[in-house]
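Hi W., the beta-D-glucopyranose complex you wanted:
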Amino acid sequence: MNRRVLAALGSAVLALSMAACSGDGAGSGGNDSDQPGDLTIGVSMPTQTSERWIADGNSVKEKLEAKGYQVDLQYAGDDIPTQSQQVDQMITRGADVLIIAAIDGTALSGQLQAAADADIPVIAYDRLIRDSPNVDFYVSFDNYKVGVAQATALLVGLGVQTKDGAKGEAKGPFNIELFAGSLDDNNAHFFFDGAMDTLKPFIDDGTLKVTSGQTSIEQVAILRWQQEAAQKRMEDLLTSSYNSGTKVDGVLSPYDGLSRGIITALQNAGYKGADFPVVTGQDAEIASVKLIDDGVQSSTIFKDTRLLAEQAVIAAEAFLTDKTPEANDTETYNNGVKVVPSYLLPVQTVYKDDIKPVLIDSGYFTAEEVAAGQAG
Ligand code: BGC
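Structure:
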């Protein structure tokens, strides 16, 4: 049966027809007789403002197309209704599998129900989709460990700990501030939990002091991970908590875009050179890798999006051939309705010394791109 013909009739008809005559089990993608070229994978990405999602989208598309599949790749401009609409369209156009990196992890239940009704398996890409029974698989990194790695990089940057985990020379007390990502992104909570579990003993014994007193995720979160909002919050913190000669020593930042906003606020306030606060990050965005190379940003967490894309493709292909994708975690990611079987990839901390061995030698960036602070 040609699903594309059915798709033209609309998703309701598609759902009925599939139930009536395809015989596919729940979550089983295409039909036995389908060739890759007959199958379409809908890929819904959140935004193009961050280069990681562009790289993710491109990698998934290239890898699927190399296997002969059709790809319907859409970016939603960080707008929730746009993403809902794009996913709706993918379903009505007859997608055989959906790969979705949600903007708001709680906002797609309706779309996922429509996908389930049309027997379309859903793979949550990097960000878990919450509050829906219709998430079939999750591919991501070990998000709790990202937070642990960020907090550890802050401790290493301050000299409280060494890179091999031993106690460092520095005793503090150090003035720090905390930032978290968007509260509607499940990952933001994992990052912050991992970081706070790591920092708490040092806050409790007085080595670290959060000068503003803002330590809950609600107080430190940045909606939609926006760089400008992080810059504004850092400016406000400098005005409210550092106006009597107290200096910022370190900032826990969960994402390179936020780190750049924080760095701009610190630079505008006169911080420079050896006294520049230790600022962490995530994603190894090229502009931030240059800042690390220049000794401005202290670290980032590298998540190889090429490997994530590969896992998403492996999972999609399993569904398309009536198999169950192989999970390596079946406990951690409860989306509020069920534990979603997951494939989690490891992450790597990148300090200045790691840029060459980790990012350049692996072909992620060229030395020229790092020097220019621009990819491509
Ligand atoms: C991703 C991070 C990214 C952040 C902002 C999170 O869901 O896991 O890699 O930095 O979104 O785009």
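Residues 1-28 have pLDDT under 50 and may be disordered.

W.
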